[in-house]
Amino acid sequence: MRMLIVYGTGEGQTRKIAEVLARQCREVGHDADLYQGDALPRGLALTPYAGVLVGASVHMARHQPYIRRFIQRYLEELRARPCAFFSVSAAAASPDPESQAQVRELVTAFLAEEGWQPGQWAAFAGAVPYTRYGRLKRWMMRQILRRAGGPTDTSRDWEFTDWEAVRLFGEQFLQAVSRQRAGRMDVASG
Ligand SMILES: Cc1cc2nc3c(=O)[nH]c(=O)nc-3n(C[C@H](O)[C@H](O)[C@H](O)COP(=O)(O)O)c2cc1C
């Protein structure tokens, strides 16, 4: 089967997660097409895809507008097949229940605004690549992380992503696609 993975990213962590999910799809014998949401092939149609994964990262409390536009444009086609959405943020790394609740609220509000209810969604902890930020961004992110009780050593990069959670998310998605396919075959033969 063929899977589509579309992601939004600022510094590349969501791309890295999307690549891991694409590899997971391929390891079990599927084809997987991976695109950044602001560089989609012209005239992309979702018809060939058995399932779609959509990812976006959080910058200044919002997901990439080009991912929002992707969802708006393909809403009907997304609704017609198994889909999963993943959000990537620094706040998702926090064990604080209030931060966790805020992350949930951010993601559910985003999906509700677009009227999209993917079969599953997850909020993954991202990364803070201090050494790749310019001075202002580094300073700002350090303030934010200090307040959140996160790491403030800007001489190195920090990755918080729970790769086991990503793998489980990928597995659940692949199971949903298989279930859908099995249901279709039942209908066809019954
Ligand atoms: C300018 C900027 C703004 C950010 N704003 C937020 C934010 O509002 N909430 C949050 O939880 N994380 C925030 N982050 C952290 C990112 O979500 C985190 O670094 C994530 O891994 C980014 O993924 P990406 O590299 O795919 O864009 C911000 C990061 C940057 C650089």
How would you describe the overall organization of this protein?
Keywords: Flavoprotein, FMN. Pfam families: Flavodoxin_5. This is Flavodoxin domain-containing protein. The chain has about 190 residues and is an alpha/beta fold. The two termini are about 20 Å apart. The chain has a single domain (about 1-125, about 160-190), classed as Rossmann fold (3-Layer(aba) Sandwich), CATH 3.40.50. The chain is built from five helices and eight strands, in the order βαβββαβαββαβα. The strands form two sheets. Strands 1, 2, 3, 4, 5 and 6 form a six-stranded mixed sheet that branches. A two-stranded antiparallel ribbon has the order 7-8. The structure holds flavin mononucleotide. Flavin mononucleotide (FMN) binds near residues 11, 57, 90 and 127.
Summarize this structure briefly.
With 190 residues, the protein is of the alpha/beta class. The protein has helices spanning 13-27, 65-79, 97-114, 135-148, 163-189; strands at residues 2-7, 31-36, 51-59, 62-63, 83-89, 120-125, 127-128, 158-159.
Keywords:
5 helices; binds flavin mononucleotide; six-stranded mixed beta sheet; 190 residues; Rossmann fold; two-stranded antiparallel ribbon; alpha/beta
Assign the CATH topology. Rossmann fold
Which overall shape is indicated by the principal axes computed on the Cα atoms? elongated
Helical percent range? 40-55%
Q: Which secondary-structure class do the elements indicate?
A: alpha/beta
Counted beta strands: 8
Spell out the CATH superfamily. Answer: Flavodoxin domain
Main sheet overview: 6 strands, mixed
Q: What pattern of helices and strands is seen along the backbone?
A: EHEEEHEHEEHEH
Distance between the termini: 22 Å
What's the rounded overall pLDDT mean? 95
Q: Which kinds of small molecule does this entry bind, naming each only once?
A: flavin mononucleotide
Under CATH at level 1, the class stands as: Alpha Beta
Unreliable runs: none
CATH architecture: 3-Layer(aba) Sandwich
Separate helix tally: 5
What number of structural domains do the residues give? 1
Q: Note the beta-strand portion.
A: 15-25%
Q: What is the rounded Rg?
A: 17 Å
Protein name: Flavodoxin domain-containing protein
Domain Flavodoxin-like: 3-144
Organism: Thiohalorhabdus methylotrophus
Cofactor: FMN
